[in-house]
Amino acid sequence: MERKGASGQNGAGRLSRTSVLKAALELVDEHGVEALSMRRLGQAIGRDPMSIYRYAANRQELLAGVAELVLDEVETFPDDTHWQAQLRRMAHELRRVCLLHPNAVPLLVTGPLSTPLGLRPAGTLRPLEQVLGTLIRAGFVPADALHIYRAFYGFLYGHILNELQELIADPDENEALLRLGLQRLPLRDFPHLRSLAPELLEYDGSQELDEGLTILLAGLGHQLADNEARYT
Amino acid sequence: MERKGASGQNGAGRLSRTSVLKAALELVDEHGVEALSMRRLGQAIGRDPMSIYRYAANRQELLAGVAELVLDEVETFPDDTHWQAQLRRMAHELRRVCLLHPNAVPLLVTGPLSTPLGLRPAGTLRPLEQVLGTLIRAGFVPADALHIYRAFYGFLYGHILNELQELIADPDENEALLRLGLQRLPLRDFPHLRSLAPELLEYDGSQELDEGLTILLAGLGHQLADNEARYT
DNA sequence: GCTGTAGGTCTACAGTGTAGACAAGATTAT
DNA sequence: ATAATCTTGTCTACACTGTAGACCTACAGC
What we know:
Chain A is an all-alpha fold. Chain A is built from 11 helices and no strands.
């Protein structure tokens, strides 16, 4: 008789924090956060569930680790282009990673991001510092840069959450459901909404993000021009 | 010997969906989502836990109901002011309600809002219809109005999530923690962030929201002016 | 050899969501 | 009034959860 070996890597070699977290992320990716139980994770790594506690204090800490693992996947870019292009690039990059791990996104918005700005792990703060640099170099006052950072990431996470909701497994079923859902609405109470049925059907997340960014960046450009006019 | 009567209303009168949901919301408000277990809720309403299942199919459905209950608290305004003022007003109203139920906010962003737009309960869609009307009346093309709605609420929920993270029980401890956290960062790697310590300390959510809205609305005003220039 | 420590395992406990059978009260049909 | 049905709340039971605490085993340094 042997240990089980069906799922994932068997109990070969020693464990490590990252190997445990990677297995956890895999589980979350495939079956959602709810499915990540200590016992299932133990089975996935071919070890006793209790062994996990050597690498994470408890389940919450484990989930926080998973979130950090996801955030580590977002790539950073050198600060060499126009600030607007730079922000666009960073936004799309974060979106890309989130779409790779949709089930883990709830952990990002209520997990380690649930710590106030100043207290997050250094790795998480690097993008913040970079955005601040970009904005200040573009001509914004540091204090404004901070507020802009918040507005920017607020919008970004908001968009990603929206897009993930729109994302449904079967697009055909989605279409049928949507038509049904819309017809249920009384025409006289929801005239605009019902007339927008076609637009509701073809949702393009990347384009939607871009359009939102355009609005936001236009507003920022405005603000920047005003500042410079005032100080010169 | 009697039934317990310490917590909440005792087992007087018949239950109803809303009474159950209200008790559930109270529990969430006071002790967080995790603390809302069927058994504890049963205790709070002075009934057997199983009775809850007559009013909610399962725990998820129960949480969705709680989320709807919260959303029902946001008031709506007649459509009588400038569209920008209207959007500002609605944003602050949603923020107000969310700050009243911070523990329930995660349910809003991953709960019934986790349904694609067209499939949400009619009550949830009313704000959408109203915003669409406001924007179209202001001069936007319907398709644009939809995208703007998305950008607007995306930003709004993003801001609220951010603000809730910033919200900590004890502000004094917050200040101490933040100072410590910042000093831990190497000055040469985080020059901007460390220089912003004072601004990080005084966080005013309402003002922050307003500044973000200003940026966004400025961008929108731009877009609107362009449209009208093109079509006249 | 001996000792200390880190990694992995085992058992056990209190708590979870919920299926399914049942009881009592209300409502309706006859 | 009697009988039938439906609604509401209760009870028991089951599979599953996170994790405390004792253990065991292998390797480190001396």
